[in-house]
Amino acid sequence: MWISPEEVLLANALWVSERANPFFILQRRKGHGKGGGITGLLVGTLDVVLDSSARVAPYRILHQTGDSQLFWSIACGSSRKEITEHWEWLEANLLQTLSIFDNDEDITTFVKGKIQGIIAEENKSRQAQEDEDCGKFREAELKMRKLFGMPEEEKLVNYYSCSYWKGRVPRQGWLYLSVNHLCFYSFLLGKEVTLIVQWTDVTQLDKNATLLFPESVRVSTRDTEHYFSMFLNINDTFKLMEQLANIAMRQLLDNEGFSADHSLPKPCKTLKNVSALKRDLDARAKNERYRALFRLTKDERLDGHTDCTLWTPFAKMHVVGQMFVSNNYICFASREEDLCQLIIPLREVSIVEKADSSSVLPSPLSISTKNKMTFLFANLKDRDFLVQRISDFLQRTPDRLCSMTGQSESPSPSTPSSLPPTPPVLGSSEVTQDRYYSSSLPTAKQGLLHIYQKGRPEDLGPKATKEKMKEESWNIHFFEFGRGVCMYRTSKTRDLVLKGIPESLRGELWLLFSGAQNEMVSHPGYYAELVEQAMGRCTLATEEIERDLHRSMPEHHAFQNEMGIAALRRVLTAYAYRNPGIGYCQAMNIVTSVLLLYCTEEEAFWLLVALCERMLPDYYNTRVVGALVDQGVFEELTRECLPLLYEHMQELGVISTISLSWFLTLFLSVMPFDSAVLLVDCFFYEGIKVIFQVSLAVLHANMEKLLNCTDEGEAMTILGRYLDNVVNKQTVSPPIPHLHALLTSGDEPPPEIDIFDLIKTSYEKFGSLRADVIEQMRFKQRLKVIQSLEDTAKRSVVRAIMTDSAFSIEELEELYVLFKAKHIMSCYWGASSSAAERHDPSLPYLEQYRIDCGQFIQLFSALAPWSCGMHTSTLAARLFRLLDHNKDSLINFKEFVTGLSGMYHGDMTEKLKLLYKLHLPPALCPEEAESALEATHFFTDDDTPQDPPSLSHLDFLVQEVTSGEEAKEVADTGGDSEEKKEEKVKDYKYYLRMWAKEREPKKETIKDLPRMNQEQFIELCKTLYNMFSEDPLEQELYHAIATVASLLLRIGEVGKKFTNNGSKKCDAQAQPVVETPGKEDSFGEAGCSLVSKALAEAQLETLPPPSNGSDEDVKDDTSISSYSVVSAGSLQCEDIADDTVLIGCGVGGAGGGSDSRRGSAPDGDWSISFEQVLASLLTEPALVNYFEKKHDIRSKMALCKAQRAVERQISSSSDHELAQLST
């Protein structure tokens, strides 16, 4: 490629000149290509260590003038072809022009200007994405594609210099991190190391420091471990690796591929060696931390943050922290944790103005809200720019737009950008179900607890007084710190939450602390619209919801009548309609029923959205991955905090059993309601860390008893009874009997545990848990859990098809890995939308991964035991159509294995039956048969339409005779049939057996196969010929198939003769036929002519393409075989010698009249059966040995597995360059 002219002082250092003229020199890097010796090894090592571009571009063109020692590099190339094109262009366009100049400086100026002009023209056609990346990074990306054979769709994120430990020896080289792969390359003194690891294969990622591997990164897969060390900045590298591995796990989980964020603002200046993708990933990481810190929606994007101070009127002091600005919010977080946090939605902002600066209050900024609150920020570094950005965002807020356009009414209901307003519901039917949705049923506009509260609080005495004191404490807090979204959140807020939120404020504060309030206000009317759209739809989710409705807190009065049940149904159905990916999962009904007690339906819906999509990610999908991940985190925390108990519990296997229900239902299913709801209070304020703290506190409180347990059941009983007796003595609600407690109540109840004491203990002993540490642990566990689920899916699929296949378990597992990898590759570099449609996690494991015809052809070519050369793709396409029973153009793993199993483990009859079917519909398309005979039809004049083969008249006669005999038998036995019916009355077992027999799939026999016509037989001969082209006994097999083809042609002709005779006997007006001698021979010659034409075409396909090599090479390529090569048109079928191969037919010979041309057309009456094909092939020992030979698929799989590490999808020009580069 042309490069911007750069000065080169030493033109011949490490370079060899190959061409030269008065103005230009073409050079090659020493050590590139064949030879090179010690110098080549040293130069190659130097290029890799120093990351020299000469490793990728070993050719260059220099510009020189006269005797000057100063050279200018103007072009480089990765192959000789590329650099030669540039050289020829210079000679053709510049050489004569430069000879006119008299001054060397003018020549150099002209050349530099010309080259820069060419580069400027090329840059105009480049995409904006490429323009963002600097030249050095684009060079590294090109280097990655060349070294590892990656396609253009594979994007490099970043690359680092490091050492890869191979054994005990570190190999210095370069680590390339792309979106889908981790790659490493090293070349030291002739020793080349190339490593490619898919992110989807990574099972563990650790950063550790040991004596053997100082400050290294360990990348673990199922098979091996890789260690990388000596990074310049190991922390940044490890964070990027975590991000890329996380994206890969997300792809395995729900098939979400990575898509770059093109709306990311461009940097003010080009960042050195930083790609746009790296900036994109950094921005994503910041956005995720920002949203998690302030509980914001998934579509909220951080615009920037700056250090500042916030004036806190309640403490009369300035708090140091950071201001965060996004498209809808201004947020503040103090540097000291829990000191102060603030969220200001821009929809609430009325005034943003710069206040007067002073020495005490430099660069202040005042923000006023609609509810008369004013926030004063100071010590802002770039206040003017910040005010401008906030003003820009204010102009885009919906309320501002409405006020600017003069609209007084509220904005129209909008829908979240992350989900469509009318999401598709798979398998739904528009069936109105009045008992599910009825307009007569009232919608809950307030919490169900308020409606069904029994007794007045005044009647409860001290408990009511305690509740009123709580309410008064919160009212004082609201007066001092503010109320609503813009409230100052401090450590005092947390203390009040830990003391219990009063029932009258619970719904409001849950919405506030979870962030659901912001989503609900931003999308007015969305819930009502969802309920209306979901009304009457019947799906799998609605059926599961209906089944679990009456299991949701059945002990509570609110859910013992239709109003509470209907409200719960509407909320769950609306969410299942909003998010079909989750739909409905067990435990959602328990959590939602608690939400409905304190909130309206719409508020409960948005709280459920916050739970499922933000606060408990992946908890409620089909495989409860999030709960399993947190279960692993809990085990890790137990190992760190309670090591002695952890070892004992691991032996019993208790932790994994108990923790799943604790996390999925937030203790609501294992603890009395009045106590568990206090944990929900803490959860909405603190997040998941409080659930971990309480879980550890429960284990710690029962440590002594658990250590004395001898089995799992005893430990479960101890923990169950402990949780049943966790009470809330301050509740004003009537006691609700806990179902689990009723079932496990004993004679001696254990002592009661106050829930407030349990929460206090959890904060005292385990309050040091941090949210960022939990997220880090979640990442490690997510790798293990998802890979474990993938392994479970693989084992389930293998068990399901093990009885239907002759492959071993190990072979089936390897085949599954290759099959799934082919699907994932299509997600990487193919059409991601179609691949996403193929993967449905709700389907059984056997149906989840499916491949299309193109992917099947690639796998068939790599794994099939029959090598057919250029005909392989045709044969694979036919097999695909044969296996695709439901005609959806996709096949699953079971169908794929069925096709391979017949080829590898079937006997000779099974293999021939498969080949036979591949040349009959639906495997053989009519277009294929027609295209195969286009050359033959070109030479024929017979325009008579030819019908497809049907049953012969002999077959009809046989059927008539059979049916006549059956009718006679029925007539003979018809007289006493009624007596027999009365004598033998069948019982129900007989009919059950008959029904079971009808349900069993009938095994196909060779007699069930249809007959094959002449066109299909010609295609079969062509396939067999291609199959034998690479066999060691090639010539013997050619002779055998020629003999069998001739025999079958004669059999078909003889069969046609009997068919014609039968038809003439059936015709009353048929005239006697006088058979002329030689008629049969002419038919045989015609069929032989067609077969020989097909074999000639097949043989031409197997020949290698003509080359420009030496005469000896050409002679070797054109010599077909050692057998005699004759024209089949000059031989009768019985004249074929043992050493003759049929190549072609004489068309325009001496006897080439109309009769001979007509004889070359396929015969529509000609047909053969599978039994005849089988019997004919059994007469040739060579063919019998070929089809009875056993093949081992393991070697094929090993080769395919080695090649599939990199799926090469490179253009032909790139292939040529790589070929040149490797020479």
TrEMBL record:
SMART domains registered for this protein in UniProt: GRAM, TBC
A Pfam match: RabGAP-TBC
Primary residence: membrane
Subcellular location: Membrane
UniProt entry keywords in alphabetical sequence: GTPase activation, Membrane, Phosphoprotein, Repeat, Transmembrane, Transmembrane helix
Residue numbers spanned by region Disordered: 401-431
EF-hand domain boundaries: 871-906
Record-linked InterPro entries: EF-hand-dom_pair, EF_hand_dom, GRAM, PH-like_dom_sf, Rab-GAP-TBC_dom, Rab-GAP_TBC_sf, TCB1D9/TCB1D9B_PH-GRAM1, TCB1D9/TCB1D9B_PH-GRAM2
Matches recorded under PROSITE patterns: EF_HAND_2 (PS50222), TBC_RABGAP (PS50086)
Topological relation to the membrane, as annotated: Single-pass membrane protein
Gene Ontology biological process terms, A to Z: system process
Lineage, highest ranks first: Eukaryota, Metazoa, Chordata, Craniata, Vertebrata
Domain Rab-GAP TBC: 500-687
Classification via SUPFAM superfamilies: EF-hand, Ypt/Rab-GAP domain of gyp1p
Gene Ontology molecular-function annotations: calcium ion binding; GTPase activator activity
One annotated Gene Ontology cellular component of this protein: membrane
Species this protein is from: Pangasianodon hypophthalmus
PANTHER family: PROTEIN VASCULAR ASSOCIATED DEATH 1, CHLOROPLASTIC (PTHR47666), TBC1 DOMAIN FAMILY MEMBER 9B (PTHR47666:SF5)
Protein purpose: May act as a GTPase-activating protein for Rab family protein(s).
This protein's name: TBC1 domain family member 9B
